[in-house]
Structure formats: structure tokens, C-alpha cells
Amino acid sequence: MNREIYITDYNCVTPLGFDVEANWKALLEGKSGVTLRKVIENHEAFYVSKIDSEKLDEEFIKHFDNQNFTRLEKMFLLSLKPLVDRHSISDNTAFILSTTKGNISLLKNETTLPEGVYLSKLAQKLADFFRFKTKPIVVSNACVSGVMAISVAKNMIQAGKYEDAFVVAGDEISEFVISGFNSFQAIGSEPCKPYDKNRNGINLGEATASVYITSELNQKEKFKFKILGDSAINDANHISGPSRTGDGLFASVQNAMKEAKVSSDQIDFISAHGTATLYNDEMEAIAFNRMDLQNVPLNSMKGYYGHCLGASGLLESIISMESALKNTLIPSKNFEEMGVSQDLNIITENQSAEIKYILKTASGFGGCNAAIVLEKC
Amino acid sequence: MEDLKLELKNKIIEVLNLEDVAVEEIKDTDPLFGGGLGLDSIDALELIVLLDKDYGIKLADPKKGKEIFQSIEVMAKYIEENRTK
Amino acid sequence: MMKKTDICTIENSKIILNEQIIFESETENFSDFAKEAYKTLELNYPKFHKMDNLSKLAFLASEMILKNDDHSNTALVFANKSSSLDTDFKYQESINSQDNYFPSPAVFVYTLPNICVGEISIKHKIQTENAFFVLDVFNEEFLNSYATQILQSGKAEKVLCGWVELYQESYKAFVYLLTT
């Protein structure tokens, strides 16, 4: 009999605020972090969701003396600190980091690899700062990393390797990444419109998000969400284009719901990936319909936060949980007219709702997909 | 234009890593996509980069790529008409 | 209890399967070694040539074990230390200079370490649990624990585990199949 595993605390650092409360308030007001910015020198501006660097530094100085950190590391530390302050770290506490590119901007004009670009070094630096005792685990599975990091924590605790886990996810906007997505013609020419008829690509975003996961409850939790099921299945189709029949996502959702012992009509809300590329959103519509989930209220949060890559899965899971706690569904921002071939129940305005079971999904380069089912307890 | 066509065939083999394909195997009017070369969506994007890098042609609308990359013949003609390098 | 049924190691221009050298080359250059291995072992999979070096390494090691058998229930759990830094470095070079600024999508797509796992899934058409971890050193215990959890929860019948580390000419693959 597997132990029950819960998320009992969380925090995030985004352009909409440096804690969840500020983020939720902004989201309720329909605010978005997406603005037009110059990211690459001598290049046109892009719509991105970027954290104000000055505000970040101001906030950082309030809590930390040591300044020997990259911008991304500051984002990570700020996100983690409240959780570390509230929950103790033992010899059996895991530290899991989800990121796709870490400190990749350190590579610019270098002839050799600076130490900071190694993801394990990044993780160790953060772990050492907070005095974690176990070796950090880095999940680097493209854009599904944030969702997978939750399932890795759950599975490793159930395997008896750890008692609890701090999971942190983050990625930063960089010339490296934006130029790459641009070469894929994947970047939208305006604020992104997931599932919309006129969608034409992604907006990149940046954020860090953290959760605390445990199998031991102490009755003092402000909230708890049980991680009921998880799965991460590959499409086995193409390294950059999703399966046209949504095979991997369908299988991930099916497996996660099977493990959770939850049926389609029990799911109250889906936080989908919805990047606003033609192919991703269409694929999701197909996969969700195959699972008979087309009537479940669904949104993508990319219109608020842009696509935060390794952070997105965790950040969006946190906002989903916050939605559940506040009994409020928020719209899939920038959606106006249906633009996928199958039905989806896309949320178009703030609405009250009883949310007990959440399905969170993600998909990414390499044909990967991930799904988790959470239960508000 | 014969030189350009040959040049294109060589470049395509190199840039798209078509190790097992010989230049002679690529006929001028054969479809590049949907034919025997097994080219995919990433290859199409790479050809857009090739147009820019080697011939100075920036495609205003990347979707035009489908028309231009129909065959070596079509591609060569387009380059002849639009190259700035 | 779990059994390790096949082990493939690739390093120093040698491919070793279950303690037998099945291919070796004089060349010290990974790229040439990989090409020679591909030809000699008659892998017949043209997409191989489009892969980056990390994917070629992971692919070669996995091919030796997976062969043409049915692996529709084989999960893939891989890890390394350098993530995709080998390709990241190459990609960065293509955007360092404003005068010679030509980012390549074919290179960019490989700037994620999990792509190598995707390549294996695609070749064998296996739609199974996939994971990629970045660890400071090869931690067989961690990979095995993670794999065991997948097996015990019934999400797969076998798990192909791999440490596939590559940065420029320094590389090592240690890939093995775990079954119940």
C-alpha cells in the first residue's frame, strides 16, 4: 500500500509578484506579465513575460546578504526561502530542481564552459545555501520538467528514499532560448492566444516556483493537495512536433487518472499546456477529447505568464491549487474564438467553482508529455 | 543555373546531414518534401536559414517555404531571382 | 527483485555489450567513431546522421540492447552530468557574433538532454514512461530506485536505464536493461 503524498506549501516569483498572494490578486484582475521587450541586441522586440530586474534585486537584498548569485539563482532563492523558513530540512529531505537551461546565459562569448552552466552545480549551490543534506536531483525534461518534478518527488518518497521534498522549478528568458524558438518560427507576433483561431505562436516567460511535498502531516497545514497519480509518456513520433493524434498526452492522462482512480467526469479543472502554437494546442484538443474531457473547464496560463519552460509546469500547478483553494476558475487569457478542431470547455471569465480534482498536463520537445492528478483535501 | 542546382544539391546533403544520399540521386524536379529524401519540418526550417545565410534572402513569410522548396529546379529559380549574395 | 539483463558500455572508441567488444575503432574522434559504428553495425537509420553527439551516444548504446525486440512496455530513464552542454556550446557559437548570426533550428532542438530519449522512443516506436535527470555523478542507486518505482506501480515491465555523459571528446555511456 503506497503512502499518501501531499503538497502542503508553495511559493512563486513571477512578473506578477514575488509571492502567491500578489500573483493571485493580479490574475483575478486579468493582469499579464507579457509586454513587448527587446531581448536580443540589434533584433526586433519580442512579446515576453519578464521579471523587472530592479525590483528583483530590491526584493533580494531585503532577504539575502550574499550577492554572489546570478539573476536566475536570485529568483530561485527568493522562491524557496519562505518554504525553507516554514519547514525543516532533515537527512531524508530531497531537493529537486526542474530547469531546462539553467544559467545558460553564462555561455555567451565563452571559449570554455563556466562552472555555473552545469545544472548539477546550479542545484548544489542552491542546496548548499539552504544546507540541504541530500544530493540534489535535477529534472531536465524540456517543458514537462515542472510537472515531472512533482511526480519524481512523489515517487521517490513512496519508494522510501526520502520523507519529504522541496521542489523548485525555474527558467530565465535568454537570448539563447529566444533565438532558438525564433528559428523554429514558433514565436507569436502578439500576446499569445492559446486555442484561439488566430494564434500564431508562443511568448516566452520566466519565473521560479517552489512546492513542499511530504508524506507526514502535522495538522498545522494551511492546505493540502494529495498527489494521486502521475505519468509521463513519449509520443514516439518526432523530436519537435507533437503526435497528431495526441498519443503521448492521451496515454499520460489516462495512466495518471487510472492511478488516481478518478474518472473523466470527476475532474473539476484542467490546467493545460496551451502554448499557442498551431500544433500543440490542436494536439491537446485531440488528446483531451480521446479521454472524454472536453466538457471540463480548462485554461492555459500562458497568456498571463508566457511559456516559462522548466518553471511552467510547477508554476501553473501552484496557480491551479490556488484556484481550488479560492473556489475560483480564471479564464484562459486572450482566448476569443475557438481555433482547434475539437471541443474544449475553455474558461472565458472568472467564475466560482467547486474544485476538488485537478488535472495538470504539459508537453514538450522530444515528444514528451506529463500529467498529474491532484486532490484538494 | 546548372552550377547553382549542383551547388544546392551539395549544400542540402551537407546541411541536412543526408549522409547516405549521393548528389546524382537528387533529380532537379523531384519533390524535396514528401519524396525519398525523408525531409521533415526541421529540414524545412533549416532551408530557410540556408536561403538567408548563403544567398542573403530573408523570407518575409516563412510559409512561402513550401512553394520555394518544391524541388531543386524551383528553389534554384527562386534564388536566382532573389539572391543578394 | 530486479534483474539487470543486458549492459552496454561505450567509451574510448569501443562498444561493449555484456562484456564482449562488439565494435572498436582506431579513431579518437567521437563523431567519426559513431559514424563507423553506424556503418559497421548496419544500423540503417538515416535519422542517425541528424542527431547530435549526445543522441548518437545514447542511441548506439540503446540499439545494442533493444535490437528489434518488442519493447512496447519498456520505460526509458536516463541521466548525465553535462546535460546537453556539448550542443549548447555549438549553438551558442552560432549566435555569438551579430555579423554571423544564423541560429540553426536543427542544432537548437538538441539543446535539451531529453531529446536523446525521444530519439530512442521514436526509433522503436515505444510510447512509454520517459525521464531525464542531471546528476553530479553517475548514481546507479538513484536510477534503480526510480526504475523500481515505475516497475512496481505497473507503469512498465522493463526499464532501460542509462548514464550517457558526453562533452566534446570526453564521453561514456553505461546503459542497462532492468526487468522484474
From TrEMBL, chain B:
PROSITE patterns: CARRIER
Domain Carrier intervals: 1-83
Name of the protein: Acyl carrier protein
Taxonomic source organism: Chryseobacterium aquaticum
